[in-house]
Write a structure and sequence with these properties.
Elements (H helix, E strand, L loop, with lengths): L2 E6 L7 H16 L3 E6 L5 H12 L5 H8 L1 H16 L4 E4 L1 H4 L1 E3 L8 E4 L2 H8 L3 E4 L3 E3 L5 E3 L5 H11 L4 E6 L20 E3 H9 L7 H9 L4 E5 L8 H5 L3 E4 L13 E17 L4 H11 L7 E3 L6 E9 L3 H16 L3 E14 L9 H11 L6 E5 L2 E7 L3 H11 L6
Parallel strand pairs: 1-2, 1-9, 2-6, 3-6, 9-11, 10-12
Antiparallel strand pairs: 4-5, 7-8, 11-12, 13-15, 13-16, 14-15, 16-18, 17-18
Helix pairs in contact: 1-4, 7-9, 8-9, 11-12, 13-14
The chain binds adenosine-5'-diphosphate, aspartic acid (ASP) and magnesium ion.
Length: about 425
């Protein structure tokens, strides 16, 4: 008997029919003698619908109020799933984040989990109940409801698994594992049986939305075995087969079975680029530009500063597209005059494409192969950033899919 956490995403919970299938699958695991905690997302489209309502009222809704409503989709899901389990004769109980409690900081819309109280959940499990906990939501010290950022139910699930010292966290979704790239963009992308934790961390941070990055961080920090698998298979398929399906995030880098130079291609459509022109080249200038941006809680990603000419330089960086306007306002508002920049220009139609793989450590020439492939397609590279196991380029968004497909082919990642 083991304690196992299941997470079901929006599509997996997308209709009452699908919820009944989730209940059958969960019941199968419970019948096999396991203790099961389920962390579901809102039904697909629901969080978008709720955020859309808020935006009909005001363009920049108050984050506290936004979390108050955005968190409700998950509350509907847990209740429905508890009912679906009860309807097939299982004992099940649902909890909102604050009832557990899943405590977070107060950064509304992107809160971080601080602690999870496991007492109530453990007591229920010991009483033979299946426990269902809302994904995505938590509660701060003052009792306000918070949410963990889009896609945050993955993080709730892995964090709950870590707090309960579960044997494994199973992330059920609408694809049957982690692929070499998004299978919806490259149809012959290949499913990976294992992916190293470091590669998964890079892929998630570089835009592969299959797992929220913080869930991968939790998995790494607590060494929680985490597997991504399909919720769309027959819910009554043999448990032994299901337990081995999908993609396991492995912590054993050296025994990586599929050691290839490149493991996957990630992309992020939601990028924007800002250039501050004619900046005096003196110590402290990067801080004077980026300090106020960070104070506005905007994450900066790629950064380049050009060689200075006659004491002036240009400073370019990228931000998430959703924060582009806010970043421009911060810079135009106080920074530009303060540092004596000539002007600020931006482009919100850029995308980032990255090749990722631990194999890069021991292979040379990956960057040149990547740049050659893009040049053969006539794609201009606007910015480059690298780490030990990834190379990212910023390009015009209209070439993003072409870039992903041609790199996927150039690195031989397709299904053979
Ligand atoms: P859920 O609602 O279950 O959380 P998400 O939509 O958040 O599901 O994540 C699953 C989706 O992630 C897939 O449908 C797929 O389009 C996308 N995706 C992006 N990159 C990858 C990848 N490398 N491997 C698998 N899926 C990926
Ligand atoms: N429902 C939330 C979202 O749509 C959380 C999640 O699905 O993981 O972002
Ligand atoms: Mg998701």
């Amino acid at each position: 008997m083991a304690l196992i956490v299941h997470k079901y995403g929006g599509t997996s919970m997308g209709s009452t029919e699908r919820i009944k299938n989730v209940a059958k699958r969960v019941a199968k695991w419970h019948d096999a003698g396991h203790q099961i905690v389920v962390v579901p997302s809102a039904m697909s489209g629901e969080t978008n619908r709720i955020i859309g309502l808020a935006k009909e009222i005001m363009a920049q809704p108050d984050p506290r109020e936004l979390d108050m409503i955005a968190s409700t989709g998950e509350q509907v899901s847990v209740g429905l799933l508890a009912m679906a389990l009860q309807a097939i004769g299982k004992k099940a109980v649902s909890y909102a984040g604050w009832q557990v409690a899943i405590k977070t900081d107060s950064s509304y819309t992107k809160a971080r989990i601080a602690s999870i109280d496991d007492a109530k959940v453990k007591a229920d499990l010991d009483a033979g109940k299946i426990v269902i906990i809302t994904g995505f939501q938590g509660v701060d010290e003052q009792g306000n409801i918070t949410t963990l950022g889009r896609g945050g139910s993955d993080t709730s699930a892995v964090a709950v698994a870590a707090a309960l010292k579960a044997q494994e966290c199973l992330i059920y979704t609408d694809v049957d594992g982690v692929y070499t790239t998004d299978p919806r963009v490259v149809s012959d992308a290949r499913r990976l049986n294992t992916v190293t934790f470091e590669e998964m961390l890079e892929m998630a941070s570089l835009g592969s939305k299959v797992l929220q990055i913080r869930s991968v961080e939790f998995a790494g920090n607590y060494r929680m075995p985490t597997r991504v698998l399909s919720s769309l298979t027959d819910p009554l398929m043999p448990l032994e087969e299901e337990a081995k399906s999908g993609t396991l995030i492995s912590f054993e880098e050296d025994t990586h079975m599929e050691q290839a130079t490149i493991t996957g291609i990630a992309f992020n459509r939601d990028e924007a680029k800002i250039t501050v022109l004619g900046v005096p080249d003196r110590p402290g200038i990067a801080y004077q530009i980026l300090g106020p941006v960070a104070d506005a809680n905007i994450e900066v990603d790629m950064i380049i500063q050009n060689q200075s000419v006659e004491g002036k330089t240009d400073f370019t960086f990228t931000v998430p597209r959703g924060e582009y306007q806010k970043a421009m306002e911060v810079l135009e508002g106080s920074v530009k005059a303060h540092i004596g920049a000539t002007s600020i220009v931006g482009d919100s139609k850029v995308s980032k494409v990255s090749v990722v793989g631990v194999g890069m450590r021991s292979h040379v020439g990956i960057a040149s192969q990547m740049f050659r492939t893009l040049s053969e397609e006539g794609i201009n590279i606007q910015m480059i950033s690298t780490s030990e196991i990834k190379i990212s380029v910023l390009i015009d968004e209209k070439y993003m899919e072409l870039a992903v497909r041609s790199l996927h082919k150039a690195f031989g990642l397709e299904n053979s």
